[in-house]
């Protein structure tokens, strides 16, 4: 893969979102506020980048522009997600071009040519020289010097000062994709955490949560630097304090780090970590996460738990990720410097529950700092929260599956591999037995039963039928079963015909009132509770999810029933202060303690992301057509898995 900057990644993602459609270079030039020649050069690099892609074909034509055509529907989502992750990683964790230059130079063992530097950050020589002035000013604060010749540049100074710069400038979070990758106990972050916790416990060394989180980041930076052959030397340190107790702990920590990561640790590194624990010496404040920010994140997560009954307060990786993101966000909020995020609509549609939790997180920040957090910033927060939801779902929701099949074990190999490919993240155990081996004792051992023949277990309703050579319909049926639904009609059942309306000439307030009153009567909800909860949620932020669709919902559950009330608007209605026009309103109410809430939101996201759903419904705005379109959207989405 080429080293693509944010602009090129954004172009690729826009082409993905508009696959098969031509987009002109002038459109990109206007949107990105750069010259047409710059975009034309970008498109040449993108063409080279996508040459090796097996699931798409890049095409360019005079006067038409460029486009991508999909050649493999099954592989395309993974292709798009790859570039989406590249974009979010870059836009969330690289704090602008200056920090990008700092990071590049700090990773060099020798002087770097200006040509190589400008090529990697995609700027002109004059822009680079101007940026280097700011880089030099930043380095001075850490006792570092930017050395320049006519065509080369490098950073000179001690390794201690360089690490302080990395930590203080939040350059460590450029590696957060790996840190918070969700690889459970195998991730670098988790392994460091486990080593520290076990060592601190064995030495009875008390630490606060914020201190533990900061120490994890400290070790991560040190490990990354040492793996890149940057070491602290004895001449970097001027130690006069007695560090005997801390050195004992530091020695044990680094002994285990050495064994786990296969790296030799110099004595000076151990002394430096001991000094960090001592908390003294002329090394400045190396806390990346302040106690105040850690407390703020924890309180925001508590409010999310109170409103949604989703407890993420014990998720260490999430709290570190949010704290690292929130610290600079606070500065941006205070000084009206909030970031732009051109993928906000995509994030809102693809991860609606994550975005909704992001609004609650932002509402807590707004309460503290008395300034609104933009939807663009909320979208960045939503990525962290959605990733935590996915991880929580994996931990809580994996299934044990038993396949009843009369075929020989050797004949089941294709079925086994297909099921593992489809549902590897959802399966805790996958076993095969013959019909004659089936007994009552197995009923309590497995969550889902499948059968390759329509025998007794199928007739009794115990097992789902699955083809020995499964197809897309089998995938959909199985995915629904794993998510807790009997079939697609089980999802459709929460859309009540009695709560389906076609509204003419009503404004937002009247539409919400009508939907709430109808649902209140239908489900015998305490009068006023639903409408008050829905209006409270509307005050937090817009419930417009793009593509002409709004999804209002109560700020917290007010009923044990889950349902969606629908209003079709042949005349679009202005929905929020941004003047977004809405054609379809889905008032979503997830019942109290509904274990399928996460999956319901995921299936609803297929509607939000469908650019043509609302338009197709307008052709025939009936309940029957709505159900047909809903089923079609879910089925079509399953084909891309």
UniProtKB/TrEMBL annotation:
Instruction: Tell me which residues make up the PTS EIIA type-2 domain.
Output: 492-633
Q: Which InterPro entries does this entry report, sorted A to Z?
A: BglG_antiterminators (IPR050661), HTH_11 (IPR013196), Mga_HTH (IPR007737), PRD (IPR011608), PRD_sf (IPR036634), PTrfase/Anion_transptr (IPR016152), PTS_EIIA_type-2_dom (IPR002178), WH-like_DNA-bd_sf (IPR036388)
Q: Which GO terms describe its biological process?
A: regulation of DNA-templated transcription
Q: State if Plastid is listed as a keyword.
A: no
Query: Which top-rank group of organisms is this from?
Result: Bacteria
Q: Where is the PRD domain?
A: 183-287, 288-395
One Pfam family of this chain:
Mga
Q: State the UniProt keywords alphabetically.
A: Activator, Coiled coil, Repeat, Transcription, Transcription regulation
Question: PROSITE patterns from the xrefs?
Answer: PRD_2 (PS51372), PTS_EIIA_TYPE_2 (PS51094)
Q: Kindly list any coiled-coil regions of this protein.
A: 29-56
Q: What is this protein called?
A: Transcriptional antiterminator, BglG family
- The organism named in the record is Propionispora vibrioides
Provide the taxonomic classification.
Bacteria, Bacillati, Bacillota, Negativicutes, Selenomonadales
